C-alpha cells in the first residue's frame, strides 16, 4: 500500500499521518510507502519498514504534481489548500492553490494512468444561504466565498474524472472541525473551538455571536475517521455522485456551552465572555446550520452524536484526558 | 452600447446578431459597436452606424481574450463552446474551450476592470439522473458528461466573479433548443428536432427512443429572447444565485408528434419511423425531464407554453410561414 498525502503539514494531515503510523495498515494492506507533500516540509513519522518521502512545493507549478505521483500511489489523500479567509483576501492565490493545484494533481494522476482511490477534503462552504431548516443531500451548492467556489469546482472535477475512469474519487464535505487544537486564529469560525478550548485551558474566550447560532461540528478525530473510511469504501456503492456531506453534530452555541458546563463545570464555562461582533455575525449568518447527511451515514461514515462527545474527544486527544 | 458576442458563428449566435441588427438597441440604448468572436469568422450584419469588428481564435490562447475586451463592452454574451458530444470525445479540447476559454474571458474582463453585464449560456446538462418528477430550482447539479461538468464549473466562476464585483453575470441554463434549423447532426438529442424538421420538409425522420420520453424544449426564438432579457434584468433582483434554469415546454415525444399532427396533418407526422436505438436510449435516460423554473419565470423569462407554439415558431422563422 503506497499512500500520497497533500497538505500533510496541516492539522488534519498531521493527525491522519499519526493514525496511519499507529495502524500500519490501510484497506487491510500493510503500508509500504508514504509520500508527504506540503508547502512547508511535513514531519516524517517513525514507521519501521515504511519508505517515507517528503515533498515541498506548489502543486500547480510545472512538474510538481507529476513528481508526487511518480511513486504510483494506491491511495491519494488530497488535503492541500489555502483556507477560507486567505482565499477571500488573496484572489489569485486562492484560485491557484485550491483550483489549479487540485486540477494539476488530478491531471498528473490521469496522465500517469494509475487510477488510485482519491480522497478529497471539500467543505460545507460549498453551500450558501438561504437554507432550509435542515439541508438535504440534494440541495444545490451555491457558495458565497471564493474558497467555497474553488472547493465546488474541485468536486465537479473529481466527479468527472471518476466518471471517466481516471481515478476513483470520493469528496468529503467536512463540517466545522471542533475542537481545533492550538492557538486561537483569526478565522471567523474560530470562536466555535475557542469557546471550548480556551476555558478548558483556564483562559477566557470571546463569543462574538448570539447563543442561538446553530452550526454542525465534528471532532478532528472524526475528520481522520472520515478520511480512513473514504479510502476504503466500495466505489460502486457510491455511484456517480462522488461528493458526500459528512455527518456531524448540529447544535446551537448555547448547547455547546451547556455541554461544556456539564463536563467541566460552571466555573470553566464562566470564562466565556459574550462580546458581540457585527462583522463576524454578518459572516456567520450566511453559513449552513444542519445537514441530513443521509447518504454518508448510509455509506458508513460516522461522527460524534452529541457535543459532549466532541468535548471529551478534545480532552482525551489534546489534554491527556485531564481537565484543568 | 458596446456588445461582445463569443460563439457568434453558431446557430444561437447568428440569431442573436440578427435580432440585435433588427432592434438596433439593447437595454434601451443604441448599439454603437459589436465585437463578434468565434473560432471561424462570424458573418458581420449590415448595421448603419455600428462599428462591427470580427475576431477569430481560441479564447484560452494567450492574449486572445484580452484583445476581445479591449473595446470595453457594456454587455458580453458568452456563447462560445464545444458541444456535448465533442467534449465527451475529446477530453482535452472540452476542458480547454469550455473551461479554460471561459476562465480566460472572465479573467480578461476582471483585469480590464470594466464590470459589464455578462450573459453566459449554460445548459440543463449540469443536471444528471436520478431526478424527481419535476426538478426544483434548488436541486443539486450532478453532471454526467464532461460538457455538463465544464458548464457547471463555469457557472460557479460566474457566480464568484459576480459576487466579487468583477462583472455582473447571469448564467442561463438552456433547455434543448427545438426545432433546430439545418441539417440533421449526430448529437444524441438530434431526433427531438429531427422528428419535426424533417417531416415538415417532406422527409422521413427516425425516432430512436420510446414515445414516452419526456424532455423540456424551447425554440431558437425563445433562446434569443432569454439572452436579450438576461442582458437587461436588474442584477440586484437576481441576488447571489446567478445561474437560472430557463423555462420551457416539458412534453413527451408522443405529445411532440401529436402537436405535429395537429399542425401539419397525419401524412406529415406519418413520415416519422420508429427505429429503437439502444445506445441513444441509454444516453437519453440520464437526461432531465421537467423543470419548475420558478425563479426564471419570476424574473420575467418566458418561453413557449405548448409544443404547438414551438412548431409554429419554426414554420414562421425557418419555412417562411408555409407548410410543405
TrEMBL record, chains A, B:
EC assignment: 1.1.1.410
TM region positions: none
Identification of the protein by name: D-erythronate dehydrogenase
Organism, as annotated: Mesorhizobium shangrilense
GO molecular function per UniProt: oxidoreductase activity
Lineage: Bacteria, Pseudomonadati, Pseudomonadota, Alphaproteobacteria, Hyphomicrobiales
NCBIfam families: ErythonDh (NF043036)
Domain NAD-dependent epimerase/dehydratase: 3-204
Keywords: Carbohydrate metabolism, NADP, Oxidoreductase
Superkingdom of origin organism: Bacteria
PANTHER family: ADP-L-GLYCERO-D-MANNO-HEPTOSE-6-EPIMERASE (PTHR43103:SF3), NUCLEOSIDE-DIPHOSPHATE-SUGAR EPIMERASE (PTHR43103)
Record bears the keyword Oxidoreductase: yes
SUPFAM superfamilies per UniProt: NAD(P)-binding Rossmann-fold domains
UniProt key word Oxidoreductase: yes
Amino acid at each position: 500500500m503506497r499512500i500520497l498525502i497533500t497538505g500533510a503539514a496541516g492539522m488534519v494531515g498531521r493527525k491522519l499521518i499519526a493514525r496511519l503510523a499507529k495502524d500500519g495498515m490501510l484497506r487491510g494492506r500493510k503500508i509500504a510507502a508514504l509520500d508527504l507533500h506540503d508547502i512547508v516540509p511535513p514531519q516524517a513519522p517513525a514507521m519501521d519498514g515504511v519508505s517515507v518521502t517528503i515533498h515541498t512545493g506548489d502543486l500547480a507549478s510545472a512538474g510538481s504534481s507529476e513528481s508526487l505521483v511518480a511513486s504510483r500511489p494506491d491511495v491519494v489523500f488530497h488535503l492541500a489548500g489555502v483556507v477560507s479567509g486567505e482565499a477571500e483576501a488573496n484572489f489569485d492565490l486562492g484560485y491557484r492553490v485550491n483550483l489549479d493545484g487540485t486540477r494539476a494533481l488530478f491531471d498528473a494522476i490521469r496522465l500517469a494512468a494509475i487510477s488510485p482511490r482519491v480522497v478529497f477534503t471539500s467543505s460545507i462552504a460549498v453551500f450558501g444561504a438561504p437554507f432550509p431548516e435542515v439541508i438535504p443531500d440534494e440541495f444545490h451548492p451555491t457558495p458565497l466565498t471564493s474558497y467555497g467556489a474553488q472547493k465546488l469546482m474541485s468536486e465537479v472535477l473529481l466527479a468527472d474524472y471518476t466518471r471517466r475512469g481516471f481515478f476513483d474519487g470520493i469528496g468529503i464535505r467536512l463540517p466545522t472541525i471542533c475542537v481545533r487544537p492550538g492557538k486561537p486564529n483569526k478565522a471567523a469560525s474560530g470562536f466555535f473551538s475557542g469557546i471550548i478550548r480556551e476555558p478548558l485551558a483556564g483562559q477566557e474566550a470571546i463569543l462574538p455571536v448570539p447563543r442561538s447560532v446553530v452550526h454542525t461540528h465534528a471532532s478532528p478525530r472524526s475528520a481522520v475517521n472520515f478520511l480512513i473510511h473514504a479510502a476504503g469504501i466500495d466505489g460502486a456503492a457510491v455511484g456517480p455522485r462522488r461528493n458526500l456531506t459528512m455527518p456531524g453534530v448540529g447544535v446551537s452555541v448555547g448547547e455547546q456551552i451547556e455541554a461544556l458546563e456539564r463536563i467541566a463545570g460552571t466555573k470553566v464555562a464562566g470564562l466565556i465572555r459574550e462580546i458581540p461582533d457585527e462583522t463576524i455575525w454578518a459572516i456567520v449568518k450566511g453559513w449552513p446550520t444542519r445537514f441530513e447527511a443521509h447518504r454518508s451515514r448510509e455509506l458508513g461514515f460516522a461522527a460524534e452524536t452529541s457535543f459532549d462527545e466532541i468535548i471529551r474527544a478534545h480532552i482525551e486527544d489534546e489534554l491527556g484526558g485531564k481537565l484543568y
